[in-house]
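sanity check this record:
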Amino acid sequence: RDVGAFISGDPQFDMSLDAYGKLVHSLMRGYTHEGKSYLTIAIGCTGGRHRSVHFAERLGEYLRVSGHETEVRHRDIGADGGN
């Protein structure tokens, strides 16, 4: 929670999340229109344990609120990234 609060405290975080969410929402409408059943999105950062995890969770919330069925998986969260 502390890390998430720190990351969300960056003035650019909410703007970035909103812009990314709008882009993905737009893409998902197009995919649905074409009959596609899912869209995979990958988000990463150098360590993969803080910013990307928090951003993915918040993006998942954003998309759920926008009416999309969303699953967030942290593929590499347990991997040893040398950090």
The first helix runs from residue 2 to 8. The chain has a mean pLDDT of 86.
